[in-house]
Amino acid sequence: MNFDWRPGFKLSPLPPPPLHQPFDDPSCPVSSWTTQQVCQWLKGLNMEQYIPEFSARDVDGQELLQMDGNKLKVRMMTLTSSM
Which residues contact 76 (CB under 8 A, 6 or more apart)? Predict the structure, then answer.
């Protein structure tokens, strides 16, 4: 690997680390997901329209796991009909 060591050459600073994504660390259990990670998960499922509601209600991984399929479907249908 070649590096440019010319006088006056400055390396640009490293970019900030990416926001933690739910799938970055496979050992990160859903139960420890933050609301932001739940929203990233929704985005990954192409369900961005539900992100504002999940954010407003601070739905984190613990709460997400408490929702069964029917409860989740009802919430999604309620949100869709109110849009």
Answer: 47, 50
Cα distance between residue 78 and residue 33, in whole Å: 24
Task: Give me the DSSP letters along 24-37.
Answer: T-TTS-GGG--HHH
pLDDT, one tens digit per residue, over 29-76 is 999 999 999 999 999 989 899 899 899 999 999 999 988 777 777 766
Phi, psi of 65 (to 5 degrees): -70, -20
pTM for the model stands at 0.61
Report d(CA 23, CA 37) in Å as an integer. 9
Which residues have a Cβ under 8 Å from the Cβ of 53 and sit 6 or more positions away? 75, 79
Instruction: Report all structural domains of the chain as residue ranges with CATH numbers, in order of start.
Output: 30-82 (1.10.150.50)
